[in-house]
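Example record

One chain of 321 residues, shown exactly as stored in the release files.
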Amino acid sequence: MPDSGPTWTPWRVPAAMPWPAALLLLVLASGAEAFRICAFNAQRLTLTKVTREPVMDTLVRILARCDIMVLQEVVDSSGNAIPLLLRELNRYDDSGPYSSLSSPLLGRSTYMEKYVYIYRSHRTQVLESYVYSDQDDLFVREPFVARFTLPSKVLPSLALVPLHTTPKAVEKELNALYDVFLDASQRWQSEDVILLGDFNADCGSLTKKRLSELVLRTQDGFHWAIADGEDTTVRASTHCTYDRIVLHGGHCQGLLRAAYAFDFPRSFQLSEEQALNISDHYPVEVELNRAAPGGQPLSLVALLLPPLLLPLLLPQLGPTA
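Predicted structure tokens for this chain:
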């Protein structure tokens, strides 16, 4: 998988294409459409930051790739940064509408952060959410757990557990994340859970030996979709896999199509200096199929529409040789 991941461009019907052919292509293409879940450390996201036009433009282009995005390091205390970002995102193209779900400010000191979900509300809805009850005070920023609907008969809902660890306690927090997984799984009676975020799970924050000893590595059933060694950092001088997405559950893992870090500077032709105005992290993303490979037939519409359109399409195609 290339560093930049596949770029997303809305498909439009060519002007000269006959409408029956266009409709047929749209029906067939819709069956292959993936559902993209992303996590992005937006590096001290404030109202001042999003009001800078180049920053806003790039953030909107990143967000428009994702059906669900979990933003981290949202430190805006005014409460105005996310509504402004949503307003511009909903004006950007026809991929929305988008909505948001924010945690309260979380932290132990004057420095506080929010987790913010931004999602396409015509493709998914929030069913439930809660801040994990961290009775032993193991997390600096407790996970803000949410359960979303999915456009899939195989997996109609999915729990997301985001975490931005503190670099000083990566191992402790990642081991405690297993308990958050158990809590969400038991609460919603489902083993299909995605853990995601800036885990700081590499380089100086966590050695390879310590990484291999994590509960989330030694317990069966967890698939680390963002592989060790994949660079999730913007700076050319660093090569660290800080940001991760971990999948649990047979249905969830069975729908996995792709996972990668999105190299937005390369895709958007930004210099390193320009990119660092956005973040020093790449977003990480997974794509889920709407049906298990080979496991779900085409919809009734997809089966019936081609024969109905064929008589309309043949005259426009002209005589055959």
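Notes: The two ends are 42 Å apart (CA to CA).
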